[in-house]
């Protein structure tokens, strides 16, 4: 079962109180959502979003938890469809600057009496995806090279590895994995592809091993880590969806509502940091990112690289 990272800190910074409403954009095992739900009883609601069908299935039937299997890149639309916007008085006609969807809801006088008080993004992989999905997220298991969060998407890691040009592969490993041997690895992939398709995680690890010099094969971080991270980011357009969701989250939040983002590598953290700095109408609550305590990291290694940033809508 996935153990939520920085749970105590999320509760402290989002400060959920009775009858407030929250959006969890990355439901996963539901650890954060369930803790928030307890604090917002009796009337508060959590809108839980995840691309992964299994995550949604596991959490069905919980009171005041609304589940949506969707990409958080479409946050505003998802929120509108589920009445997660402040309640509007019943009025004839509707305002000129709202979308057709919200106009329709306004005329019914629906929405949330407290608005949306907090939004959470806990990026990356859940332990369930890593260990049980069979989609090749981990180089420690021999599985098909898939890496999709959303099984309806066409692009898989296998497609990238077996069809992209050498330069494109090297660019992905360099840009999304900050991999120092990206060119050599891309070269070995092309060479190996000439004789056989690379279809599994083990096959890919073997190819990477041939490209990485021996003395770098025993560092603290496994030599395949960066390529696997890069592929996952490329398959799911993880940086693109993060850039899309941040302004939508701020738009949806009620005044004084907070956005909390937990990221797991510097590429994501940089995007969040810059957005918080450049976006007007935001108060940065965490001047420096919050890191898990030593005790937490000892208990849950996944938290090792986590960084939490929080901002408040003015
Ligand atoms: C780190 S886990 C969340 C764990 C969760 N906070 C908990 O405590 O159990 C991230 C989740 O986000 C989902 N996810 C990743 N990208 C997504 C996207 N663009 N849209 C919706 N869900 C996404 C993944 O499927 C995964 O279940």
Describe the protein's architecture and organization.
The structure is a single chain. This protein is α/β, with parallel strands linked by helices and 314 residues long. It has 2 domains: 7-127 and 238-313, Rossmann fold (3-Layer(aba) Sandwich); 132-236, Putative methyltransferase TM0872, insert domain (DNA polymerase, domain 1), CATH 1.10.150. It is built from 14 helices and 7 strands. A 7-stranded mixed sheet has the order 3-2-1-4-5-7-6, sandwiched between helices. Helix 8 crosses helix 11, helix 9 packs across helix 10 and helix 12 packs parallel to helix 13 (266-278). The relative contact order is 0.14. S-adenosylmethionine binds at residues 2, 4, 26, 28-32, 49-52, 55, 71-73, 122, 124-126, 129, 149, 241.
Jot down its keywords.
314 residues; alpha/beta; Rossmann fold; DNA polymerase, domain 1; 2 domains; 7-stranded mixed β-sheet; 7 strands; elongated; binds S-adenosylmethionine
Q: Which architecture name of the largest domain does CATH use? A: 3-Layer(aba) Sandwich
Q: Strand pairing plus helix content: what structural class?
A: alpha/beta
Give the helix proportion (percent range): 40-55%
Instruction: Give, in spatial order, the strands making up the sheet with the most strands.
Output: 3-2-1-4-5-7-6
At the fourth level of CATH, the homologous superfamily of the largest domain is Vaccinia Virus protein VP39
């Amino acid at each position: 079962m996935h153990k939520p990272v920085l749970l105590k800190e999320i509760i402290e910074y989002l400060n959920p109180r009775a009858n407030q409403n929250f959006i969890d954009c990355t439901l996963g095992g539901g650890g954060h959502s369930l803790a928030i739900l307890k604090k917002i009883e009796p009337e508060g609601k959590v809108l839980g979003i995840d691309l992964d069908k299994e995550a949604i299935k596991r959490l069905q039937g919980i009171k005041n938890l609304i589940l949506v299997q969707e990409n958080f890149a479409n946050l505003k639309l998802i929120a509108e469809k589920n009445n997660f916007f402040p309640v509007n008085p019943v009025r004839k006609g509707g305002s000129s600057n709202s979308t057709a969807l919200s106009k329709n809801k306004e005329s019914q006088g629906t929405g949330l009496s407290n608005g949306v008080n907090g939004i959470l993004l806990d990026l990356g992989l859940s332990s369930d995806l890593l260990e049980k999905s069979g989609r090749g997220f981990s180089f420690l298991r021999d599985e098909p090279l898939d890496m999709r969060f959303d099984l309806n998407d066409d692009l898989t890691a296998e497609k990238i590895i077996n069809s992209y040009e050498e330069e494109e592969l090297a660019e992905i490993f360099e840009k999304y994995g900050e991999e120092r041997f990206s060119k050599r690895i891309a070269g070995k992939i092309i060479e190996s592809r000439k004789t056989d398709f690379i279809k599994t995680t083990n096959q890919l690890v073997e190819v990477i091993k041939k490209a990485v010099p021996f003395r770098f094969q025993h560092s603290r971080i496994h030599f395949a880590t960066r390529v696997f991270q890069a592929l996952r980011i490329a398959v799911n357009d993880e940086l693109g969806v993060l850039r899309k969701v941040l302004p939508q989250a701020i738009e949806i939040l009620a005044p004084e509502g907070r956005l909390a983002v937990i990221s797991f590598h510097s590429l994501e953290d940089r995007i969040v940091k810059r957005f918080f700095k450049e976006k007007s109408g935001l108060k940065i609550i965490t001047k420096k990112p919050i890191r898990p305590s030593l005790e937490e990291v000892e208990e849950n290694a996944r938290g090792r690289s986590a960084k939490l940033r929080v901002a408040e809508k003015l």
